[in-house]
Structure formats: C-alpha cells, structure tokens
Hints:
This protein is mainly alpha-helical. The chain has helices spanning 10-17, 20-29, 35-42, 46-60, 65-79, 138-171. The longest helix has 34 residues, at 138-171.
Amino acid sequence: xxxxxxxxxxxxxxxxxxxxxxxxxxxxxxxxxxxxxxxxxxxxxxxxxxxxxxxxxxxxxxxxxxxxxxxxxxxxxxxxxxxxxxxxxxxxxxxxxxxxxxxxxxxxxxxxxxxxxxxxxxxxxxxxxxxxxxxxxxxxxxxxxxxxxxxxxxxxxxxxxxxxxxxxxxxx
Length: 172
C-alpha cells in the first residue's frame, strides 16, 4: 500500500481490465445469484456465465467465486462512483419596478401579476395543472374520484352504444 493508506495502484488496473459483460455477471454474483439465475437474467447460457466469472476471477486474482465477489464489491465501492448531473439553478430573480407612490403602502386590490412583464404567464393556468399532486384535501380528492368515475361510465356507455349500433348494422 502507498503512504495514503489507499488500495494498491494495481487495483485500478485490475478494475479497468474487467469487461462490461464480466461486471454484469459480477454484479449479480454479489447479489448471491447462482450461475443459472444469472444466465436467465442476462439471457445467456450457464456456460457463458461460468466462463465470464472464471475470467473475472483470474483478472481479480481471486481463488474462488466468493473471493471474486468480495474483491469486486470492494473495488466497485471505490471505482464505480455515480456521476451526478449538474444541479439546475433557477435564474436570478429580476427586480420589477414598483408602481407604489413614494411613502405609500401598497393597495392590495390594485396589485397586478408582474410575471407578465417578465414574459411569464399572466395568471392563466392550465386546467389540470395541479391534478396529480399528492396533497389534495379530502373534498378535492372526492371530486377527482367522482369525475374519474363519471368519465369511466361515460366511456363504457359510449362503447356500449357503438356496440349496439354495430350490432344493428350487422343484423340488417
């Protein structure tokens, strides 16, 4: 080991020599899957799974499957880091010129939506904008269920009407 106490430098070289197919088999091996289960999940033969695991074992320098899984898990924790997407930061809010007279308090009845000045919406919202949020109160939830039920009944009755019309056409 080097002075920093980290893994030897050849660990990264061994990690880089593992192929994606070997890593896929090793990922399932560390979940305690058998060769047969791995073969079913990856849609390959058991022989191919064993071959990939044997090659991975040789690359990792392990004695058996269990040691391969142990070494692979340690390396995975160190070298297989998740790359995070950049965080989307909202735009800096722009100051909007106030229409209040100096020294006067705002009259709440005369306030206007300033988002129209910035090119945003002018208070008109799409009709189903908040429909799928999860924090509706019970009354709103009841109305949503009733509306869904009414739509389902309407669709079923429409389908039955079409079926009846088709049935009459066929009989005539």
